[in-house]
Amino acid sequence: MAPSAQPALLTSVSSDEKYANVKWEELAFGFVRTDNMYVAKCNHGEDFQEGKIVPFADLQLNPCAAVLQYGQGLYEGLKAYRTEDGRILLFRPDQNGHRIQAGAKRLYMPYPSVDQFVSAMKQVALANKKWIPPPGKGTLYIRPILFGSGPILGSFPVPETTFSAFACPVGRYHKDNTGLNLKVEDKFRRAFLSGTGGVKSITNYCPVWIPMAEARKQGFSDLLFMDAATGKNVEELFAANVFMLKGNVVSTPSLTGTILPGVTRICVMELCRDFGYQVEERVIPLEEFLESDETFCTGTASIVTSIASVTFKDKKTGFKTGEDTLAAKLYDTLSDIQTGRVEDTKGWTVEI
Ligand code: COI
């Protein structure tokens, strides 16, 4: 199949239909070619152009572009939701706007203002409105990218930066969403102190595909990465933050620069406090993590997903899953806000 060809999921699209002709029940978390995307460029030393919606198409790239040569690129992920009463909601897009700015500073790139970022997300969602799944059938995952598109061989800064965003309708990211079976990765590290683990650099992901592929072959859902400095403390999954519950205390690894500051992570911490739990951000040794009552992971794609087991050196430790868990309560509460089923008293959703 050609790289941009459409998978079998799509049948046909007619411009006057409310919905694209998608088999919504079969939605997975994967690429689906939608109608439109956003593109804005910025020449070195200038501000970003206003940006515009254009038909979805392959990007033309100079082979010497900074993103191809030196990995100067960031991505973000956020979702648009269709509510039962026909509204379209984005979830905390300003947070992704702030995070892409932090990442751009780290990768020595210019960045759009948060207002421009949020406006671009609204435009992408509206320009692909018919691809936003019916309520309860999935979400429209928006993928903003910011990358060095200008050619650079030796000296920097990069002459041109591109800010673009496209969107795909998606279902759940974790196939085994009732409870993940994780393996502790004790060789490969995801991030190291003063590196780029704390920003959404495109370079953070495929360097751990070797152990991920091995873990999948062994039947695991995902990996639990340890800190690079000691190899003893829990950091995060491939692309999700991690939490543990012990008694009335919810703990998550503190942001030391190696862990992504997830938008769902901060929401979950706030909701746990609302529920009356004590919330701690701290170093979590693996031994302590394995003794928790319940563990779960969070992320835009992961939402809130229970962890059913963690295997470390062939020893498997099981955790509570199911309806009577904190993870289930968090998932329901968050999903109700995101999909407009309850009033958003926190101001997290943006109606477009
Ligand atoms: C997200 O949750 O948005 C991510 O970046 C995870 C990705 C692997 C789908």
Which helices and strands, and how do they pair?
Blueprint lengths: L9 E3 L8 E2 L13 E8 L8 E4 L10 H5 L2 E3 L2 E5 L5 E4 L1 H14 L7 H14 L11 E10 L11 E11 L9 E6 L23 H9 L4 E4 L15 E6 L2 E5 L9 H12 L3 E5 L3 H4 L4 E6 L3 E10 L2 E4 L7 H13 L10 E3 L1
Characterization of this structure:
By secondary structure, the chain is of the alpha+beta class. Helices cover 20% and strands 28% of the residues. It contains seven helices and 18 strands. Strands 3, 4, 5, 6, 7, 8, 9 and 18 form an eight-stranded antiparallel β-sheet that branches. Strands 10, 11, 12, 13, 14, 15, 16 and 17 form an eight-stranded mixed β-sheet that branches. A two-stranded antiparallel sheet has the order 1-2. Its cofactor is pyridoxal 5'-phosphate. It comes from Camelina sativa (False flax).
Low-confidence stretches: 1-7
Separate helix tally: 7
Calculate Rg over CA atoms: 20 Å
Distance between the termini: 35 Å
Counting helices, strands and paired strands, the structural category is alpha+beta
Structural shape: globular
List all distinct small molecules, including ions and cofactors, that are bound in this structure. Answer: 2-OXO-4-methylpentanoic acid
The largest sheet, given as strand count, sense and whether it forms a barrel, is:
8 strands, antiparallel
The number of E-state strands comes to: 18
Helical percentage: 10-25%
Secondary-structure element pattern, one letter each: EEEEHEEEHHEEEHEEEHEHEEEHE
Mean of all residue-level pLDDT scores: 94
Give the percentage of residues in beta strands.
Answer: 25-35%
Family: Belongs to the class-IV pyridoxal-phosphate-dependent aminotransferase family.
Cofactor: pyridoxal 5'-phosphate
Keywords: Aminotransferase, Pyridoxal phosphate, Transferase
Protein name: Methionine aminotransferase BCAT4
